[in-house]
Amino acid sequence: MKVVFCSDLDKSVLVSNFEKRGWLQVGPEEDWNFYWAGTQTCRNLFSVDSGYRMHDHQTINHFPNHYELTRKDLLVKNIKRYRKELEKEGSPLAGRCSASGPGEGNDGNISGGRPYLYLDLVPVTFVLPADYNMFVEEYRKTPQSTWIMKPCGKSQGAGIFLINKLSKLKKWSRESKSPSAFNPCLARESYVISRYIDNPLLIGGKKFDLRLYVLVTSFRPLKAYLFKLGFCRFCTVKYDTSTHELDNMYVHLTNVSVQKHGGEYNGIHGGKLSVQNLRLYLEGTKGKVVTERLFSSISWLIVHSLKAVAPVMANDRHCFECYGYDIIIDDRLKPWLIEVNASPSLTSTTVNDRILKYKLIDNIISVVLPPDGIPDVRWNKVPAPEALGNFMLLLDEELASQDEAQSSALPSKTRSDARGPSQRWK
């Protein structure tokens, strides 16, 4: 049986991978086995109105309601719900720091501190306009603090701005409510406003974030993999906390779609540094133990963000998804989840970029398909170790439960710990 594929995206890293395997391309109206689709195509396909029923030998690259993880407002809502549920269960994971009182915000976060011992995954965040009064109450505890505004449904840095005065927010609110002949939906768009991480870890005086790729083949049980060849994205201008640089997005936003328009942008390396080189730099400047702890914390953050959305995700066996995680590291080497992208860019801005993204797609196909390379929903979705390529297993709840059942009869000294990532991230 020859695999027949369909794709909304005419990206060389996709098509060359498919053609290398001898797959045949068809249109969306024809019979296909493997569909690399845009998010809107996926929503249309799974909508009740479409009446489309997928067959056992078909697979697609998005879960029906992926937006529970990738919409900024829903991500925060699901993480907050996850915390509350663990608190009710009395889970030690939801343990709070001993500090409490004046600094504690309405969403359970402590201003400028660490509210949870383990589950402080995202900065203090509110959804506007719904949470406006709660935001104002939080803001007034630390006046002149900096906050970042992001439209919930946009990406690539579009519509983002920083504020450090309530007057600026009120001005935005008035302008967004005014009618617009060009964009009548403007007034109805929701934003998230998050405490700005104003103490980012800097390299060469510049701010950066991590772009990591996380592959999920199932949400119940959760099966997640981390691509080890992620990279850092750097700002082109040195970081500056002064108020006159608040509107300079080349200082604050790491998105390549923003930085490539700057005069300091380097088209050879694209303002990027590999995760491996970041690790070497940190081991040399901070030490191996601290660096190992940071990367372990990043894995922890990813796993629990996925666990937070797993109960509400439509877990269709025809689906898999590769998410683009954006993570900021502060100067105390604490990682913060900034956002998750449903369709991380497959555009290659440099030679190394193209090599990385070609490997990413190649490895994804090897992990999500059975050993014979033919999509089949009856497969148990347990790839052989050699099929992982540059992916490492973050968590397979099915395998972990089997390991626990087998080890329960063994002496405690010989039991394996299946709670965290199965491999060291190197």
Strand elements, count = 16
* SSE ordering: EHEEHEHHEHEEHEEEEEHHEHHEEHEH
Oligomer: single chain
Task: Quote the average pLDDT.
Answer: 85
Q: What's the story with the biggest beta sheet? A: 8 strands, antiparallel
Proportion of residues in helical segments = 25-40%
Poorly predicted ranges = 99-112, 179-187, 412-420
The 3D shape can be described as globular
**Strand residues, percent:** 15-25%
Span from first to last CA?
A: 37 Å
Structural class by SSE content:
alpha+beta
The helix tally amounts to 12
Please state the CA-atom Rg, rounded to the nearest Å.
22 Å
Task: Describe what this molecule looks like in 3D.
The model is unreliable at 99-112, 179-187 and 412-420 (pLDDT under 50). α1 (12-20) links the parallel β1 and β2 (24-25). The two termini are 37 Å apart. The strands form three sheets. Strands 9, 10, 11, 12, 13, 14, 15 and 16 form an eight-stranded antiparallel beta sheet that branches. The protein has a four-stranded parallel beta sheet with strand order 2-1-3-4, covered by helices on one side. It is 30% helix and 19% strand. The chain is α+β, with helices and mostly antiparallel strands and 426 residues long.
